[in-house]
Each structure stands twice: as C-alpha cells, then as structure tokens.
Amino acid sequence: MSTKLVFATHNQNKFDEVKTMVPDTIELLSLNMIGCHDEIPETGNTLEENAQIKANFVTQNYGLDCFADDTGLLINFLNGEPGVYSARYAGNEKNAEANMQKVLRQMQNTTNRSARFETVIALNLRQERHFFKGVVEGEITLKKQGEEGFGYDPIFRPKGFDKTFAELAFQEKNKISHRAKALEKLVHHLKKYTYV
Hints:
The structure is a single chain. With about 200 residues, the chain is of the alpha/beta class. The chain has one domain (about 5-195): Alpha-Beta Complex (Maf protein), CATH 3.90.950. The chain is about 30% helix and about 25% strand. The protein contains five helices and six strands. It has helices at about 10-20, 45-60, 95-105, 170-175, 180-190; strands spanning about 5, 25-30, 65-75, 115-125, 130-140, 155-160. A six-stranded mixed sheet has the order 2-1-3-4-5-6. Strand 4 (about 115-125) and strand 5 (about 130-140) form a beta hairpin. The model has no long low-confidence stretch (mean pLDDT about 90).
C-alpha cells in the first residue's frame, strides 16, 4: 500500500531527481499533480525558513503530508552569497544562465573558489515538523563545464572529483549531492513510521 506524500516543487528536473531516491511504497506527488499552480512566496531569511514556508502552504491549503526543500550555493569569497537568494541571484525571473554568469563575473579576479551546496528539507508529517540537512563541499570553476543537471551544476565541482555536477552522470550525482544527503536522512526518518 502506497502512502501519498507531496514534494512541494514545480521544478520537474528536481522532482524527477528526487523521485528516483524515494522508495516505491511512497506515492510522490508534485505541486502540479495536486492542482497547486501557485508560486509559493519564499520570504524566509534562511533555507530552513523557506523550506518550512513551502511545506506549511501545502499542509494548510491541501491537508496533505508534505516535504519541501530549499537549496543554496554558498561561496566563501562572496561571504556566503548567493545563499538563500540562489534561484533569484540575477533577478526574479530565476534565470540559471544569468545566475551563473553573475557568479563567474564576481569571481573573475580571485583564486579563492571554495563553495558548498546546502539543502534543507522541511517535513510536515502527522502534525509533526522535522528538518534534514545535506551539504557537499566543492569549488566554483572558471567557466561552465557539462550539459547535465540544472541550476549552478555546470560551475560547481564537488570535492574529490575532476568533473562538475553537470559533467557527472545522473546516477553518480545522485549518490553524492547535497539533496541526496538530505533525502537519505528524510527516508531514514520515514522508515520509523513504517512508511517505507
């Protein structure tokens, strides 16, 4: 018997990536699949706040158990930017290409290219709230490399690898990514509820 759980996203790439990590006993639904076409405002000052806002929106308006994530790219040379503003770094239109170009422009005169991706998942389940965090360290490349992935993947090289996230195979990225690490903690938690 499958259990319905909403992943609060409109991003099909992100939904597909997460769906491969969630056990078959969970019927994973996107916002579009429950008829939610609203752009949920992300007004929080932290990744945790934004993730909770999105999860609460679904739980309060649709009465469904839900988890939501927020992810940020934190670059040391830029004092943690773009951080919570990663999706809108170059403007409200959420243009990934413009965001990457802005980062590369701002970093063209530095050798300090260390950065990390952080994902925070907020889970609303049976009137309880939980948070799960995943982090992957790495560096910003000098130029875009690779065609896979989405967001900042073409300019982020994870520590211990000679390829960017956009050059790694889908399955390979899913083993080491920040989202995968946070999801692993989420799935482990769900098992306590005999969900899985």
